Amino acid sequence: MGKMRALAAASIIPLMLAGTSAMAGTFKQVAAPAGSISAGVIGINDQGDVTGSFTSDGVTESVFAGSIDGTYETFDVDGVSAQGRSINNQGRIVGITFPEGSLNSFDRPKNGAPALVTKDGTPVIGIAQGVTPSGDFVGDYFREPGSVPQRGGYKGKNATYQSDVDLPFATVRVAPRAINAKGDIAGWFVAEAGGAPQGFVIQNGAVT
């Protein structure tokens, strides 16, 4: 497993949903996709539909999505490993795929074909995670050499880069990971090389 894929895979959540002492709830075991030997849930929508990835051979990851009882659809992206990272209430899924050790974002409408997210016609190298009911999504990507930050945030729609997501102070990485219907964006950033990640929220255009 390449470094990019290992880092991305580290965030997979085991197949369970549970309440904690701080949040009352009911534990639910999520059914694994048929034939899988390992699987993880990464995203859930307001209706309780989930998305994530699974493997049947211990090597290739495929995306699954659907209700937690195991009524899933599964797909790959261009025949290579992929993870569903977020799903909206309309069933739109955004996520990542791993072509030849790289890392690309994808966008897939419900019952549609997944498409790589592009900027100026070229697939972005990075992660898509967080999608609104209207299909706007966020993530982070490697910018052109010499850019600061080199790996910055972005917003997209319909498998196309729309704009950068920047913070009003110096950073070496900006990583949006969620966006709501109002357009508020949450994620994390690193202020300087070797620094620890810190959280941010952009709400009504202001950063907190």
C-alpha geometry: globular
The biggest sheet amounts to: 4 strands, antiparallel
Percent helix: under 10%
Average pLDDT over all residues: 90
What is the radius of gyration?
17 Å
Instruction: Classify the secondary structure makeup into a structural class.
Output: mainly beta
Q: How many runs of DSSP E, i.e. beta strands?
A: 20
The unreliable regions are none
Describe this structure in words.
The chain is mainly beta. The protein has one domain (3-207). It has one helix spanning 3-9, and strands spanning 16-17, 28-29, 38-44, 50-55, 61-66, 72-75, 82-87, 93-97, 104-108, 115-116, 118-119, 122-123, 126-131, 137-142, 151-157, 160-165, 173-179, 185-190, 198-203, 206-207. It has a 4-stranded antiparallel sheet with strand order 3-4-5-6, with no helix packed on it. Strands 7-8-9-10 form a 4-stranded antiparallel sheet, with no helix packed on it. A 4-stranded antiparallel sheet has the order 13-14-15-16, with no helix packed on it. It is globular and about 45 Å long. The mean pLDDT is 90.
